């Protein structure tokens, strides 16, 4: 599904669209967080907290921006 549509659905509260974003970006986000933290468990926690934060602030997302 096109990312703009996924974000638009997320803004409307569709939790399934968050799952799409998690599946799409989680691995890369964990690798990046690990490079910063040098701690595998902490990297997973940081990424999980980030996705929760995204869902909580979904109304502020801009689907027109990458």
Protein model, in words:
- Helix content is 74%, strand content 0%.
- The chain is mostly helical and 66 residues long.
- Helix 1 (3-11) crosses helix 2 (15-37) and helix 2 (15-37) runs antiparallel to helix 3.
- It is elongated.
- The protein starts with a helix and ends in a 10-residue tail after the last helix.
Give the structure's gist in a few sentences.
By secondary structure, this protein is mostly helical. It has 3 helices and no strands.
Secondary structure elements and their pairing?
Layout: H1 3-11, H2 15-37, H3 40-56
Helix pairs in contact: 1-2, 2-3
Reading the helices and strands in chain order gives: HHH
Helix content: over 70%
Mean pLDDT: 93
Which blocks of ≥5 consecutive residues have pLDDT under 50?
A: none
Form type:
elongated
Strand content: under 5%
Please provide the count of β strands: 0
Distance between the termini: 14 Å
SS-derived structural category: mainly alpha
Largest sheet: none
Quick tags:
single chain, 66 residues, mainly alpha, 74% helix, elongated
């Amino acid at each position: 599904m096109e990312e703009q549509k996924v974000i638009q659905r997320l803004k409307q509260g569709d939790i399934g669209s968050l799952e799409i974003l998690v599946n799409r970006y989680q691995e890369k986000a964990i690798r990046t967080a690990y490079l910063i933290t040098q701690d595998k468990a902490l990297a997973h926690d940081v990424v999980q907290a980030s996705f929760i934060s995204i869902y909580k602030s979904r109304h502020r997302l801009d689907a027109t921006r990458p």
